[in-house]
């Protein structure tokens, strides 16, 4: 089985790039299942039903998220919609709206976790995922994990913690793609960060002026995604052996497109 996992899609430019590229990529690469990081879909800040639906219609099977999932307040109720395949990180406190894992959204089970180093106060992703797997999560399907985290060390540590128990652990959140695709000794595929679908001429997908002004002034500034121009499409393709549920290959699939 061939799974494409797409990095943080930033704003309308990122969405248009996914809309233009994904259907053809699925055919070209023989993709069976697609995950997409959607925390920045709506103008870079969170997501909405419309922007999530747009990505599902473009070919995404499950949308994962991260710290920005709460930015659009009107969306929070929709996190409990059983027909909308959108996850929020699993290791938020008990009682948080939404769900952090799904094993009934196709041939692949997906877990979404968030890191604690330089991100926030959450339950331990290590023990939370242990509890989930101990409960029989996955229904026998291969499992992939989107670990939305800042620190490269924390991402690698979670991958090693889960080695042999899931097909792949991929990092998201930094918007910067890393070139360290590999398979760990017991068969779990890993990459530190998928990257983003966002503008080449930007700071993490955001207009340079606003982001730069924030650093120069030390104050919050209006920041918005770059909407037009050359877009980086960053993703990783994981080939999974269906009999073992583990990774056979992990490789980057990076494209650029003008939108
Ligand atoms: Fe992001
Ligand atoms: Fe994030």
Percent range for β-strand residues: 25-35%
Query: What do we call the CATH topology?
Result: Purple Acid Phosphatase, chain A, domain 2
CATH architecture: 4-Layer Sandwich
Which superfamily, in CATH terms, is the homologous superfamily?
Metallo-dependent phosphatases
Q: How far is the N terminus from the C terminus?
A: 31 Å
Largest sheet composition: 7 strands, mixed
Concise synopsis of the structure shown:
The chain is 23% helix and 26% strand.
Please name the defining characteristics of this protein.
13 strands, Purple Acid Phosphatase, chain A, domain 2, seven-stranded mixed β-sheet, alpha/beta, 5 helices, binds fe (ii) ion, 259 residues, six-stranded mixed β-sheet
Q: What is the topological layout?
A:
Elements: E1 2-6, E2 8-9, H1 11-29, E3 33-37, H2 49-58, E4 62-64, E5 101-102, E6 109-114, H3 125-134, E7 143-148, H4 152-161, E8 168-172, E9 182-183, E10 189-191, E11 196-199, H5 208-217, E12 230-241, E13 246-258
Parallel strand pairs: 1-3, 2-11, 3-4, 6-7, 7-8, 8-10
Antiparallel strand pairs: 1-12, 5-6, 9-10, 11-12, 12-13
Helix pairs in contact: 1-2
Question: How would you characterize the overall build of this protein?
Answer:
The chain has 259 residues and is an alpha/beta fold. The chain has one domain: Purple Acid Phosphatase, chain A, domain 2. It has five helices and 13 strands. The protein has helices spanning 11-29, 49-58, 125-134, 152-161, 208-217; strands spanning 2-6, 8-9, 33-37, 62-64, 101-102, 109-114, 143-148, 168-172, 182-183, 189-191, 196-199, 230-241, 246-258. Strands 1, 2, 3, 4, 11, 12 and 13 form a seven-stranded mixed beta sheet that branches. Strands 5-6-7-8-10-9 form a six-stranded mixed beta sheet, covered by helices on one side. β9 (182-183) and β10 (189-191) form a beta hairpin. The two termini are 31 Å apart. The mean pLDDT is 97. One fe (ii) ion binds at residues 39, 66-68, 148, 173.
């Amino acid at each position: 089985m061939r799974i494409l996992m797409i990095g943080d899609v930033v704003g309308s430019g990122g969405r248009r790039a996914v809309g233009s590229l994904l259907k053809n990529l699925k055919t070209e690469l023989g993709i069976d299942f697609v995950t997409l990081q959607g925390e920045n879909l709506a103008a870079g800040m969170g997501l909405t039903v419309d922007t999530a639906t747009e990505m599902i219609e473009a070919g995404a099977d499950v949308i994962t998220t991260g710290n920005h999932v709460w930015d659009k307040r009107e969306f929070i109720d929709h996190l409990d919609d059983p027909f909308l395949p959108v996850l929020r990180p699993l290791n938020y406190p008990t009682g948080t709206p939404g769900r952090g894992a799904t094993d009934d959204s196709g041939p692949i089970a997906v877990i979404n976790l968030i890191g604690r180093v330089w991100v926030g106060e959450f339950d331990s992703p290590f023990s939370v995922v242990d509890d989930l797997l101990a409960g029989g999560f996955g229904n026998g399907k291969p499992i992939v994990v989107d670990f939305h985290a800042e620190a490269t060390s924390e991402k690698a540590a979670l991958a090693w913690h889960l080695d042999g128990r899931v097909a792949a652990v991929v990092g998201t959140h930094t918007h910067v793609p890393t070139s360290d695709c590999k398979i760990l000794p017991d068969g779990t595929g890993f990459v530190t960060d998928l990257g983003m679908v966002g503008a080449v001429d930007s700071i993490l997908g955001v207009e340079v002026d606003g982001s730069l002004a924030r650093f120069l002034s030390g104050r919050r500034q209006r920041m918005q995604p770059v909407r037009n121009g050359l877009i980086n499409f960053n993703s990783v393709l994981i080939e999974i052996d269906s009999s073992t549920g583990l990774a056979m290959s992990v490789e980057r699939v990076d494209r650029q497109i003008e939108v």
